[in-house]
């Protein structure tokens, strides 16, 4: 069995959509772990602090111990002439300086913010349980709830153990989640922040209000270290195909009725997220109150909901971490109507506030983007084998670029859609000019590009200046004008300009000679339209008598009675006749017969000019 059949491994990217805090369990205290300077919070580095004390001798070291006990490091730094910036490992700008305590985020040993794989896997497990419950028709949850309510005493912490064991497996060795391997994710871009966080609870009027401290004197404010919106983290997730494929039907693996795959996981995450977002919009709308932060929360959730339609097949949005609440962490296995007073008392779900819906509080981060809930993330799965192939292709591309440096330059040239700019890029660069002359592959690509540009621009050439600049004096066009298609386009443009200039009396011998010389140099002819003396041959005729007869025609009736046949006329006679038709407005006549004669004459002139008949 090949390695990629044993595991389906994905390189994953997490994009933070709202502040994310994964607590390390440590609380940072003012005066001990951090100091305030105006709107700046500076987190202290204990090792640097100790080093400064050791350098200053035993007296400074002793006084540092006392300062730590008294939470007065600010005083010690001032006394010993140590700048706080010298001993700070990070800093934050805050909108509220009344900070006494900070909830620390979890970091790696090298101070890189972490999103533990165990936390991510826990969020995945919650989503999968929600999907399994839906597929089961909610039967197992209903029956388990009935059993638990009949018991005299239960441990609320393990109330869902029977549901988990039947859906996923009762023993860690046989649990379906064992086939899902989630590594830690490390931040690769973005910053940490310290958002001012309020706790909102339902007041007596069932409207959300800011929760206050125990003495009801101040608003409760929390400051959790958080990954900012827009931050990104990378990590690896794998599915153990070997375990999942071989566990089905074996003793102990009865819950492996469905293989845990990426498709199934994405389905679960999307279903759970949709349910949570819709519930939050409904809850906040019902209990909004007057606080503008709550309106911003509703707007965020509505925008989040609308973004689901734009998710790619390998993406999902989910919520995790601190502040995601009971529904985010535990999951809404119990439907709202099942949260009766009896159930809430049995499971100790805020049973002292049974008159209010559960849960009744929300944590809200106040950020520069507005008020936000915590923990919303977008995950993108990239197949690791595909990434390896892409990396190999990139390596080969770099090697080729070193071996064939002109290829990278050629790619840039082919993006240019202006003939004059393309000419400058090639002919003003000696190295590029040399490549164009010597490298067959480059020659062909540039020729094809010039062909396409000449074709596209020909209809837009409307005057003599444009004809000269883009075609007649453009070295790039001259270089490949011997190609039939390019020469034909140049000739077509020249012919259109010549016809317009002729009518205005602006076509000169000099212009005619320049076009003639250009076209003859690339193997094309031009003298069938213009004579050597600069007189337009269309004004001459081999049948001077017939030409004179046409010039004496007074009106349409005279032409109709003249017996003149258009298909037998030469170019000179045709040009004389069409001038008469224009005077008589034959082309705009309501008479279909007259209009057809006008079209017939136009076609005859075109055929004679191009030499097609």
Structural class: alpha+beta
Shape: elongated
Main pleated sheet: 7 strands, antiparallel
State which percent range the strand residues make up. 15-25%
Uncertain spans, ≥5 residues at pLDDT below 50? 530-536
Which percent range fits the helix content?
Answer: 40-55%
* Overall average pLDDT: 85
Q: What oligomeric assembly is this protein in? A: single chain
Q: What count of domains describes the coordinates?
A: 4
What is the helix tally? 25
Give the CA-CA distance, first to last residue. 73 Å
Total E-strand runs = 19
Rg, Cα atoms, Å: 41 Å
In short:
By secondary structure, the protein is α+β, with helices and mostly antiparallel strands.
Could you walk me through the main structural features you see in this protein, from its secondary elements to its overall organization?
This protein has four domains: 31-99, no CATH class; 114-191 and 228-279 and 309-361 and 368-384, no CATH class; 404-526, no CATH class; 539-610, no CATH class. Helices cover 47% and strands 15% of the residues. It is built from 25 helices and 19 strands. The strands form five sheets. Strands 1, 7, 8, 9, 15, 16 and 19 form a seven-stranded antiparallel sheet that branches.
